[in-house]
Sequence to fold (390 residues):
Amino acid sequence: MQLKKIISVKSLGKRKTLDLEVDHKDHNFYAEGLVSSNSHSISYATLAVWTTYMKFKYTLPFLIALLRNSKYEQDPYEIIDKVSKEASKFGIKILPPDLARSSMDFTIDGDNIRYGLNAIKGISEKSLESIIEFRGAKTTNKFDVFLAAKSAKINIGILSSLIQAGALSSINDERARMVYEAQVFNIFTDREKRNFLNLGEKYNYDVFSIWSNEVANGKNVAADGKVLVSDRRKQTIKSKTEQYSLIFQKNKQHKKFANWFFERKLLGYSYSSRLKDLYGKSYGYIGIEEFVSEPEGIQGKIIGIVKECRVAKSRNSGKKYCKFIVSDEKAEINCFIWEALLDELSEKDSIPNKENIVSVRVRKMDGNGCSVNQLTTLDEQIYMKLSDLR
Fold:
């Protein structure tokens, strides 16, 4: 097809379309006010048939191909989230990253998919060689992990991401605490690290147990006859770790929610818990997948993350409304806030924003949509790095 000239440009609201003149009268294809070439529509239809066949015939390789190519998309973690939802419909799990079991990229693991280490947010191409060296080290406890990471030149930021994502959960799954321990251990001198390693087995390799029982009173001495940590060093360590302590004190109040939050931020999906279960049965939340299958008119309470949100006016009545998408671990649904409630939420500055976690009381509409009767933005705050405190 040879493009000759642009005939006209028309506005379709926020969308624009070009009416193109093509070489043959039968080569035009019209859909939703857009004109294209029939050859394009046939190609896309053929591609759709091929991909549908591959998806249902070779599901695991198909899903892995989507996951591996997600890195080339504008928002790779949105793609991973969508694939994880789709995988669950086939009884396939995306297993968490694991330093010992994961490859660098997504791989088949039995009947499931194992998350790749290089897909964890914050893991750069430059750090992959260090991670390969790190994963080759023999580690049986937290102190071994901290020392091996240092030896492999894994910086504390990358180590924290690996811990928060659950890649080291086989060693310890108290992730918020383990990150704090790693940050403190990282500040120790080599001598202080050796002293803590010598006492590790006695205190189950817990930095803070050793500190409170052996260091705080200043009475115990190391093998060289000197105190484990001098008074001056105690003050230095306290000063350097004060903000890390603030992060830990905040996160430890919501341990399971913190793990869920870490996973969503670093992996794009959560594998350890469903959001509705974190708040207990007394809240009566319904999973979005279950609610979507309910008949029109049914009412219920859902919880999820806001994926998109926009305020607009109805073409027919001119009244304002808000449309947003709420997503949980298995599905998503379109939610509509009508003018009366919208005005009330606007006065309270409570209109949902993208990435907000919201609790919503809704009534099922026809199709994949619901009308909002009540909305609450949940304000539990999880901190992942020092900049979050600011």
Q: What stands out?
A: Residues 231-251 form the longest helix (21 residues). DSSP finds 14 helices and twelve strands in the chain. The radius of gyration is 27 Å.
